[in-house]
Write a structure and sequence with these properties.
321 residues; alpha/beta; 3 domains; 9 helices; LysR_subst-bd; WH_DNA-bd_sf
Amino acid sequence: MVQRICSALLAWQDRLVMETVTLLGLRILRQVAVTGSFAAAAVELGYTQSAVSRQMAALESAVGEQLFERGRRGVTLTPAAQIVLSGAGRALAELETTGQQLAGLRDRVGGRLVIGAFPTACSVLVPRAVAALRDGHPALTVIIDEAPTPVLLRRMSAGRLDVALVALNDESTDRDLKDLARFPLPIVGMHVAVPAEHPLARRPTVRPEDLLDEPWIVGVGGSGDPQFGPWPGIANPRIAFSVRHWTTRLGLVAAGLGISVLPGTMAVAVPPGVRAIEVDDPSHAERSSVLLARNDAGPRTRLAVRALLAQATALRAELVH
């Protein structure tokens, strides 16, 4: 009998805790852990500090433990709070995943989506767009086809891609773009990658005449690949190294062995020891980055176009500021 009464009391206590530990309280606890204070958590979440304090007091009451050590510089989590936070993190992650799956059911956008893009766009722009698509439409299966522009144009014509991000120049023909909708991308211009300790590294922009005496690390590639040699118009450039892969090229820059031309799509993804600087050269005729999709594109393709355009705009804002 006593055992049954104890079991009933424990079950009642568990129900009470579950009724008083709210999702809002767990989310606020997570934010307090990140920011280190109730005031900062309130600002991040858009609540008043008193509302945050009330939620945390209710959470402490629900679990029956002190969750915070208060000090002059904010709060620190107690061991009990760390335990609650660990469980809260798992619970909130599961709920967020469930919400995404339900969103996918509501919008009913699923299936296979193939995005083609030239290699330098696959470093930052395409991954960000794919992440946004996955977050909003978890039923989508996204495939990335990384290839040079001439290959992408052939695959687009053959119907193997839903959307293609290509770099077009004056040699592109109407035949290449027949029956395709075109969406110009707002991508910033070409940069140069310089070592972090280079005299030019602290400057926001450089001009071609600033680069005349620099050793260049240039690219080599297959037919149709942009080679990214020294800056166009520099007479008798000094070539220090010719390499195929961007990781090697930027590694050589980081080691202080030269500078390299860098597409704007990669300027936010340079490794430690490298700085990306925009080149102010009005005479430089760049390829235009364009999204291609079929004129009769379905909802999956339209979502991909919107995601890529949005991420390109955000990327430009990062680089401009």
